[in-house]
Design brief:
With 517 residues, the chain is of the alpha+beta class. The chain has eleven helices and ten strands. Helix 1 runs parallel beside helix 9, helix 3 runs antiparallel to helix 5 and helix 4 crosses helix 11.
Amino acid sequence: MPHGVCSWCAVAASISILIGAQPLVVAPSFAVPASQAYSFRGAMAPQVHSNPLATELQQKLKLLQAQLTDRSIRVSLSDAIERSLLHNPELAQAYGQIQQRQWNLVAIRRQWYPSLSASAAGPAGALWGYRRSSTNISTTTANDTVDQQITQRESQLFPVVSLGWTFFDPSRGPQINAAGESLRSQELLFNVAARNLVLQTQLAYFNLQEQQQLRVAYQAILNASTDQVRQSEALFNAGDASIADVEQIRTQQFQTLTLLIQTHLRIVAAAASLARAMALPPGQLVLPDTALERYGEWDLSVASTIAQAQSLREEIQSSLAEANSANWRASALFNSYWPRFSLLANGFYADASRRSEVAGGSPADVQQSRTLDGSVGIGFTWSIFDGGIAAAQAQADKALARQFSDQVEVQRLQISEEVEQSYASYSASRLAVLSSREQADAALKAADAVRERFKVGYADMTTVVQALNLAVSGANAYSTSLREYNNAVASLYRVSAQWPQYTFALLRRREDSLKHR
């Protein structure tokens, strides 16, 4: 995507007026030796000394900034988006839901396959059984009594194999269609998650750029305020300024320093947000490698943008798919009242063996039998009346389908509202960028002029402080308008369902990697 040419360079050049082109350091005429200090009627006037706290705070702040830089990596916006799409686990989580519905569809389709099962028909459901028993028999003759022991060993095998195939089930086709529509809905929601991630990365990157630009602007104004503090202290010690002048500019110095500290905190927060979107390792932050500038243009009219959003937004298509899925589920429930036909086949095999032995007597008596049996038939199942349970559940799914259809209309209204707001923000911020840039430039020039007039006694300290505050406001306005412009362009891509350059190809790469994990 092309970048605009408007940048912070022009304003930074204006800031240099305060601290570069005309250095505002304490001139030798303001360095007052103790022997020439202001006195009144022979008594030395009170002297003011520089507050070391301001210098100490600035040094500590620079240390925090250096620590942030040391544990941060520099990336461009395109690199940040690429890493987000290829590594963020939120997309993996969303794709897991796609795979869950894919397998659900596979399971329903496999209901068309025949089923094969094996079981046992032996006693107590046993597949194989063994039994051993011994019997003592006493035989009495005229001369003697003979005791004999008969041992019997019996083994049995009873496997049964069943084959079933329901070849006619009117509810199965609608179930497959319902699962297919549900899968399509989840695939569309995956694209929604990817679009949201791209926008999240862009907004975090622009916010980080804004905070860094403000840090540069605040630092320049702080340097100017610090020079003005030294100048005012020297003038007071020479008897040419009041203590009110000194404390006013000191207040301005610490106010700007507080802004700089708060900006550092916002930089860390924005860097952490961007690092999260990019899925960086814990403890690592990220900083942009480019300054804040205008991020492209939007060529479509508001009417064309709304029309594109209405036809391409995945949220609408997902709701329509869910409505279709609910309707198909209702059809499947109604069709469950129709009869089902199936092909049934059973195979039975029995193997029984019995061995009887007489201890010390005749040879063993062995008996063995094998049976093989099978049957094939057409099964018939018809749920004629279930109390209306399936019909009630079907009506519930019909109501759910109407709910999703109504949700589509709500989403269309919301999408139109989003486009209107984003387009209005884009149009307004495009003008605000030009206006705020001139505001910042004029405020800095005014601050420089007022400080020069203060040197020669034609302006008071209140005017100097007001001018510096206007410079702060100008820097804020320009940075904010640039960020809002970039946010508006990125939002227009999101709300119109248009992929920024290269992002769709990156998403397909991520999908391919998730398929084979």
